[in-house]
Amino acid sequence: MTVRPTPLSSALLLAIAAPAIAHAEADAADPQRATELDGVDVHGERVRAQSSKFTAPLLDTPKSVSVISQQVIEQTAATTLLDALRTVPGITFGAGEGGNPTGDRPFIRGFDSASDIYVDGIRDAGSQTREVFAIEQIDVVKGPSSAYSGRGSAGGTISLVSKTPKLENFVAGTLAAGTDSYYRGTLDANQVIGDGIAARVNIMKHEADVAGRDEVNSSRWGIAPSLAFGLNGPTQAVISHYHMETDDLPDAGGFPYNNPFTSGPNLALNGDGSPIVTNRDAFYGLVDRDFQKTKADITTLNLSHDFGGIVLRNITRYGDTSNDYLWTQPDDSKGNPNLFGTVWRRTNARATQTDSFVNQTSVTGELETGPLRHSFNAGVEYSSEKTVRGTYAIADVRRPNGQTTAGTNNPLTGNQSCPTTGAATGYNCTDLTNPNPHDPWSATHTVTRSDPARDVRQTTRTKSAYVFDTISFSEQWMLNLGARFDDYNTHQFNPTAAANVQHLRNDTSFWNGQAGLVFKPMENGSIYVSWGTSSTPVGVDGGDGADGISATIQDLKPQRSRNIELGTKWDLFDARLSLTGAIFQTEMSNARVTSDAGTTQNAGTKKVKGAELGFSGTIMEGWQVFGGYTYLDAVVEDNGFALVNGVYVPSPFNGNAFPNTAKHSASLWTTWAPSFVPGLSLGAGANYVDKVYGNVNNTKWVPSYTRWDAMVGYAFSERYSLQLNVQNLTNKTYFTKAYASHYAAIAPGRSATLAFNFKF
Fold it and tell me: Could you list the residue ranges that cross the membrane (predicted)?
């Protein structure tokens, strides 16, 4: 494997690594360095992964883990999960449609991780667009992780850590305004109300348009109260609730690709496969029709008791989430942009509700067996997810010849062909260069929620048991072991299928493991080699995602992935700066592909060879950094067979790159607080993402980009401060998501926000 970093990533890494290397030897010799340190000191608060399944400090955990601290979230003015994940290289984002929901869809090391998002270690089921107002930090675990998290997690997992009550009184918040009608307010209040009893509440209200996309807007509000008992004793109880609602006019559709034709006389009109951008501000949606509304209500009860070093914990969670939308995709399936300079306004609709119940009981502690020291975590878990999925129907319209056609078709042609635009087309056709999002579409069309009796219903239940143990042989050698067993069952009922009765079912069980050997040449450093696996069963999305169950795959075994990784971690400058590096290979050896008999089988192979570097913490007084670089050589080695001229032949896509995967990516966020101007802080950020393909054919793609951000803050006192953030400083036109067929999602333009922060 040959790694060729980009000039940007090389410069960033050298700039960060040079002073660290120069001081590494001196810091490594510090006798005060404690082996219990599990993170990096950031303004006096040590950053650490929160999962109890990590039975060793991060320094000694043989796995790649990135921790996005609350400080980084606040400094970058991130408001959503995807905003925050942008600071971690190696993560790209996938687009949604109708069957594949619009919401958070991160790809970690090339694998879809939409179903691998957790809150406080519990799977967060249901497609959503997640906020960060009630989040303390975000932990990103990279590489196959089913031993830790259960089904899926071929690329890794993302865990959001909630804000919970503390034994101190404070009130903190932010009032912010900015360009593009940006208004945001947050409140974080904590109050001690008795002996070991405290309450905390987080509140958020957000309104904003999208820079460079005049009609697009977002509106949301949320509240997250929590109450804790026994915070000063061995028995603790925390009950919390999270509520958030959104009401957006979405911009999921973006721009069509320039190569719609796969055969025929119009092939010469095809472009190179990149998006068409004749007018960067063009919006092909309809203001009087498009919408996306989501709601989440999640209640958690966390009970624990410390038996003198052995902690027994039980977590119970009930969640109810919904995701309803109807939005416009600028479809290119008929080649309208190339042939006529027009766009067909295809609709994508979805109405889903997911109810989930999870109960997890675990025990954590330490013990000695002769000369060996053990740090362990073991537990059992039961989860149930029930998803109901419907859609929105558009009434048929009458054509000029008296016949009827689908309400989204062009009445003049009876299909999706758009030689002209305007009222005669039912406003289903619009101009490529100068679309009118205020066309009065709703005046002649009717939209209704589909009949709930015909909704698709899916229930997924899992019973699991797991155990983890870090065995210390000496001060220099330790072995990390972990195993998990999952009994998995998913059942889908589809009343709209043939004969109005389709029951799909997959029942399976699987083991997954994790092993890592750690060598510590110094107290502040480690070198490790690790191995881990994951299992992705049929219907892993629980009925609300991109990896659903179907008649052709319901009897297949889980896809299996394994990862081999060699890495090193160092805590420098008295544990204020963390440096990490790793090389790895992840292989999915039985991916679902078409066989030479035309059936779907577990016969494909996908392989990712990669390397990554990371840094987080303080280089010197007043200078902080966070970021890294990731290289991914992701190849579809065996994509099965394809039907060519009536004969199944080896897939022509064998050897192609993974879709939604950047070969090179790098990020840097850095702040500087000059000592000669007390209270002033300056921040700058850069994100580089290489070319990304939207499909396994490698014919649809979005170009590489570098985005720059900036921040200026001033603290008037310990209580009050101002912070100015400028996002996309150069107003770069770039794309954040590449859908497999029809469109790419464009990023916002330049925007600025000014926030007044307070804390008492």
Answer: none
What pTM was computed for the model? 0.91
Q: What is the pLDDT of residues 329-359, one digit of tens each?
A: 998 888 999 999 999 999 999 999 999 999 9
Distance of alpha carbon 61 from alpha carbon 529, whole angstroms = 10
Alpha helices in 233-386 (DSSP H): 336-340
Secondary structure class of 266 (helix, strand, coil): helix
Question: How many CA atoms, within 13 angstroms, populate the side-chain half-sphere of residue 444?
Answer: 19
d(CA 716, CA 439): 49
- Closest to 528 (Cα-Cα) out of 520, 514, 518, 536: 518
β-pair partners for 221:
205, 245
CB 660 within 8 A of CB 155: no
Give the 3-state secondary structure of residue 620: strand
Question: DSSP strand E in 30-155: where?
Answer: 40-42, 45-47, 64-68, 91-93, 106-108, 111-112, 117-119, 122-123, 135-142
Residues near 740 by beta carbon (within 8 Å), at least 6 away in sequence: 659, 694, 695, 696, 700
Please state, in angstroms and rounded to a whole number, the distance separating the CA atoms of residues 70 and 54.
Answer: 20
> Is the separation of the CB atoms in 351 and 447 below 8 Å?
no
d(CA 231, CA 703): 51
Cα separation, 155 vs 140, whole angstroms: 10
d(CA 32, CA 176): 42
Percent of all residues in the chain with a pLDDT value above 70, rounded to a whole number = 92
Q: How far apart are CA 535 and CA 546, in angstroms?
A: 16
pLDDT in tens, 240-265: 999 999 999 998 778 999 999 988 89
Token duo for residue 389: 């999925």
Q: What is the mean pLDDT of the chain?
A: 90
Q: What is the pLDDT of residues 18-49, one digit of tens each?
A: 333 333 333 333 333 332 333 444 443 445 66
Mean pLDDT check: name the lowest of 50-59, 175-184, 516-525. 50-59
- Maximum Cα interatomic distance, the chain, rounded to a whole number of Å: 89
Question: Token pair of 668, please?
Answer: 């840097």
pLDDT of residue 496: 77
- Distance between CA atoms of 309 and 358, rounded to whole angstroms? 26
**Is the torsion defined by CA of 376, 382, 388, 389 positive or negative?**
positive
SS3 label, residue 339: helix
Q: For the CA atoms of the chain, what is the radius of gyration?
A: 26
* DSSP letter assigned to residue 27: H
Half-sphere exposure of 408 (CA within 13 A, CB side): 21
The string of DSSP codes covering 192-230 is EEETTEEEEEEEEEEEEEETTEEEEEEEEEEEEEEEEE-
- As a whole number of angstroms, the distance between CA 528 and CA 582 comes to 9
pLDDT category at 599 given cuts 50, 70, 90 is confident
The whole-number pLDDT of residue 651 equals 93
pLDDT confidence bin for 500, thresholds 50/70/90: low
- Reading the block at residue 751, the tokens are 């925007």
- Residues 6 or more apart whose CB falls under 8 angstroms from that of 345 comprise 284, 285, 286, 328, 329, 330, 331, 408, 427, 428, 429, 430
Spatial CB neighbours of 49, under 8 Å, sequence gap ≥ 6: 38, 39, 58, 61, 65, 67, 139, 141
Residues 451-455 have a mean pLDDT of 91
